[in-house]
Design goal:
Order of helices and strands of chain B: HHH
Low-confidence stretches of chain B: none
Number of helices of chain A: 7
Oligomer: heterodimer
Mean pLDDT of chain A: 92
Structural class of chain B: mainly alpha
Low-confidence stretches of chain A: 1-9
Largest interface: A-B, 49 and 46 residues
CATH architecture of chain A: Up-down Bundle
Mean pLDDT of chain B: 93
Largest sheet of chain B: none
Structural class of chain A: mainly alpha
Number of helices of chain B: 3
CATH superfamily of chain A: Cytochrome c oxidase, subunit III, four-helix bundle
Number of domains of chain A: 1
CATH topology of chain A: Four Helix Bundle (Hemerythrin (Met), subunit A)
Number of strands of chain A: 0
Distance between the termini of chain A: 41 Å
Shape of chain A: elongated
CATH class of chain A: Mainly Alpha
Number of domains of chain B: 1
Number of strands of chain B: 0
Distance between the termini of chain B: 45 Å
Strand content of chain A: under 5%
Helix content of chain A: over 70%
């Protein structure tokens, strides 16, 4: 928790990383993704052959690479918050920019996957599996891109010293959002790439 | 151990578990694949929630809410696949 947040916390109250408003937003996002994942699970149970055939056309290595990049991004963001907590908000800038690069790697791999699938003739209307695959991953990809924009913007402001008097509330809020995007992918990855 | 070292250890563990989950489909017998992958997903998710998100010492309501989301999604997947 940032110093600013600690200063305003009630005695005996628990810490919340970042802004409470950001956590309401994150919980709302998790609810939306939860509904989407539940739909994916139920659809997979209703049409197992269609889903098995659809999964066979995916690249497991691409899914693995995507997971590695998002986990690495989350690690870099957590290191940034750790560095900022020890030496001030300016210290998180290079870590956040490195995490943005990891996010860019994720986007590049995902776009490559989409291009390969499109070249093979797959689209949203090919099958129930492909509808869920494209819908959930594009929706998630939009959140990755938003997370990259937020991390880059916060890194820029950290480097300029805009948060020097505000503690870590803004960097922690951006970090929490990025970790949420990572958490959703951890649930999505086995459903799309691993389980038969 | 410093927090930076702890984060690095958790990151390496998460990468190893990710590779393990990806390889599980070729190694683990079919009846055990879903529970095995579900367990790996829960371990990875809890590590992100507690270590990277920093919710270990945060409000229990917040921590349990995020953990419940992960448990709910994984449990739904396991129950529907095994029934």
């Amino acid at each position: 928790m940032s110093d600013a947040a600690a200063d305003t916390a009630r005695p005996g109250a628990y810490a919340v990383p970042g802004d409470l408003a950001m956590w309401w937003f994150i919980l709302a996002e998790l609810a939306v993704f939860g509904a989407l994942l539940a739909s994916l699970i139920v659809a997979g149970a209703l049409a197992p052959e269609v889903f098995a055939a659809g999964r066979a056309g995916l690249h497991p290595v691409a899914g693995l690479a995507n997971t590695v990049m998002l986990l690495t991004g989350s690690y870099l963001v957590a290191r940034g918050i750790d560095a900022a907590a020890a030496e001030g908000p300016r210290r998180c800038a290079p870590w956040f920019l490195a995490a943005t690069l990891a996010g860019a790697g994720y986007v590049a791999v995902k776009l490559g996957e989409y291009a390969d699938l499109a070249a093979a003739g797959y689209n949203l209307r090919t099958s129930t599996f492909h509808f869920f695959y494209f819908f959930t991953t594009v929706f998630h990809l939009m959140h990755v891109v938003l997370g990259m924009i937020v991390l880059a913007a916060v890194a820029r402001r950290c480097r300029r010293g805009d948060y020097d008097d505000e503690g870590l509330r803004a960097p922690e809020s951006a970090a929490s959002y990025w970790h949420m995007v990572d958490l959703v992918w951890l649930a999505l990855f086995p459903l799309l790439y691993v389980l038969p | 151990m410093s927090r930076a070292e702890t984060l690095s250890q958790h990151w390496i563990m998460l990468l190893a578990l990710t590779v393990a989950a990806a390889l599980a489909a070729t190694v683990v017998p079919a009846p055990w694949l879903t529970p095995a992958v579900a367990a790996l997903t829960v371990i990875k998710g809890r590590t992100v929630i507690d270590s990277f998100m920093g919710l270990r010492g945060a409000s229990p309501l917040l921590r349990h809410s995020v953990s419940a989301w992960l448990a709910g999604v994984v449990a739904l997947g396991v129950v529907i696949r095994l029934t």
